[in-house]
Structure formats: structure tokens, C-alpha cells
Amino acid sequence: MCQLLGMNCNTPTDITFSFTGFAQRAGNTDHHSDGWGIAFFEEGGLRHLVDHRPASDSPVADLVRRYPIKSRNVISHIRKATQGQVLLQNCHPFVRELWGKNWVFAHNGDLKDFRPRLHAHFRPVGDTDSEHAFCWIMQELWKSHANTPSVAELSHTLRELAAQIAPHGTFNFLLSNGQALWAHANTHLCYTERAHPFAQAQLQDEDLSIDFAQHTTPQDRVAIVVTAPLTTNEVWTSFQPGELMAFVDGCRVAV
Questions:
Q1: Rg of the Cα trace of the chain?
Q2: Please, are residues 176 and 222 in contact by the beta-carbon 8 Å criterion?
């Protein structure tokens, strides 16, 4: 299966520390070596990078590790192919436009017999179950709401849609429109919230630590969502099966 990494913040923040450990799982500390990708929301725009090479030795991934791109919402994915060839067009995260905004989606899992009909506006480019599910979610959101609804309304609709997809297999996903980060799990997903007073963190997959107090202000808040804990000395909270969470400004919000 694949692995997911998401970040939601109240101020633009770089993900270099978390991504450095996460990328090691793409061929070094784990076997997710069938491509990778990352998307950064930046001031209404989107920086989207994908590569069919393993993130552990991809020159593009090395750029991400060294270049502190700052964003309030980031989604990254390392792939272990279950459906679809190892091709650039099958690398997550996927991007679509809805209501004049970019939407980014990444999925960990394997869906069986889920190929609902799609209308012309939302069609897959690749041949993965994940992209097909994303296109269907976008289609159903478009049908359910005339324009961008509130985070609470979107969360309600997404929970209903996820419940229709999840019976077809493993359906862990991250989704963002640059305003919020939604995360759903029916197997493995966890999160941590970083806030003042910030402390030191030690990566699990690489011998690297950071003292967040030296790189933050007391007002900063950061939420990290990942398939398996990235650090050895932070508190990580696991999702319950079928649970959908939303994060806004670095905090989990009630939905």
C-alpha cells in the first residue's frame, strides 16, 4: 500500500523536516518505491510536483528536501502500486478544479469494483482506482453544492461520500482546497498538532532532529497527518476506522 503525508498550518510553513523522513519510506526504510508526489498551496496558486522514480533517490524529491517552500496546506504521497502502471500520470497527488479553486487528493489503499460513471468535466488521466474515486468525489461535490460551501458542510458531504466508497476496499485519503485539509481513514492514519511551547522532534526514519522553538513564533500552529508516525518523541493520535477529520489553521476542527 501507499503512504500519505499532509500538513495544515495557520501561517505559511515549510515541510522539509517531515518530508525528509517521509521520503525515506520510498525505498530505504520501507518499500513504497513506485513514484511519489507533493502539492503546495501558495497564495491562490498551486505548486505540484510528481515523479515516477522513488522519492528516496529522486532529484525532484531532493529539491523539496533542500528548498523550504512555505505553504499553509501540503499533501504528499509515496506509491506502492496496486492498480495502474508505474507512470507519471498515475502518481499522486491528483489535481482538479472546482468552483474556481484547485483541489488536491491522495489515496492510500486498493478499491475493488468501484468505477462509477463520470461526466465529461471530471475524468481520470491515468488508470488508477484512486484517480477515478477522486473524480467521482469532485463530481458529487459539484452536484451537491452550487458553490463553495463551508468547511462543516463540505465535511458532512465528504463523510457521506467516503462511506459509499469505503466498502470497496481500503480508503485512506487526504483532500484539500487550500482552505482546509480533510483526512479519512478506514485503516491507518494518525496526526499530531504542534503549538507553543514548541519542542525538539526526532525523525523515526532518519537520524535527524529539529528544535521547532528556534524556527517558530508563539502564534504558530501546525497539524501533521501521516500514515504512520514520523517522529519518535511526539504524541500521535490514531484515527478510528471510518473517521473523517478536518484541519483548519493548524488545528483539528469539529465537523
A1: 17
A2: no
Note every long-range contact of 79-83, with CB atoms under 8 Å and residues 24 or more positions apart, other chains counting: 79/2, 79/32, 79/34, 79/35, 79/36, 80/1, 80/2, 80/3, 80/31, 80/32, 80/33, 80/34, 81/34, 81/35, 82/1, 82/110, 82/129, 83/110, 83/111, 83/127, 83/128, 83/129, 83/130
Answer whether residue 79 shows pLDDT above 80: no
Residue 83, pLDDT above cutoff 70 = no
Residue 15: helix, strand or coil by DSSP? coil
Determine the length of the chain.
255
Phi, psi of 63 (to 5 degrees): -60, -45
**CA-to-CA distance for 179 and 163, rounded, in angstroms?**
23
Residue found under cell 504521497: 77
Q: What amino acid positions are annotated as catalytic residues? A: 2
CB 205 within 8 A of CB 29: yes
pLDDT of residue 165 exceeding 90, the answer is yes
Angle CA 58–59–65, to nearest 5: 90
pLDDT (mean) for 225-232: 97
b or e along 155-179 (b: 16 or more beta carbons within 10 Å of the residue's beta carbon)?
A: bebbbebbeebbebbbbbbbbbbbb
Name the H helices within the chain: 16-23, 59-66, 129-144, 151-165
**In this structure, what DSSP letter does residue 164 have?**
H
Residue 45: what residue type?
A: G
Q: What average pLDDT does the structure give for the chain?
A: 92
pLDDT tens digits, one per residue of 112-130: 999 999 987 899 999 899 9
